[in-house]
Specification:
Strand order of the largest sheet: 3-4-8-7-6-5
Order of helices and strands: EEEEEEEEE
Shape: globular
CATH superfamily: Domain of unknown function (DUF427)
Structural class: mainly beta
CATH topology: Metal Binding Protein, Guanine Nucleotide Exchange Factor, Chain A
Number of domains: 1
Number of strands: 9
CATH class: Mainly Beta
Length: 94
């Protein structure tokens, strides 16, 4: 089962990830929300839409903008709407 891990903590775990461009997108209801803080950061992808970010906080260590999601994905990316992906040192073990 794919899981996202940072600083020894499982941030998300699901058998229902969607893989897009090599990234596992986890359903939002499978993330451990206590480690996530909304960020003001946004980025844009021509075919997915505007991404929003979360910073991760594990035991007081912050990984800024280490997770992203598309709250309103464009039509071609609707399958990842409501899913969260990771980078910046977060390991995804499949």
């Amino acid at each position: 089962m794919p899981k996202a891990i940072w600083n020894g903590v499982v941030l998300a775990e699901s058998d229902n990830t969607v893989v897009v461009e090599g990234n596992h997108y986890f359903p939002v209801d499978t993330i451990n929300k206590q480690y996530f803080t909304e960020s003001n950061t946004h980025s844009s992808c021509p075919w997915k839409g505007v991404a929003s970010y979360y910073s991760i906080d594990v035991d007081g260590q912050i990984n800024k903008d280490a997770a992203w999601y598309y709250p309103s994905a464009k039509e071609k990316a609707k399958n990842i709407e409501g899913h969260v992906a990771f980078w910046k040192g977060v390991k995804v073990e499949a």
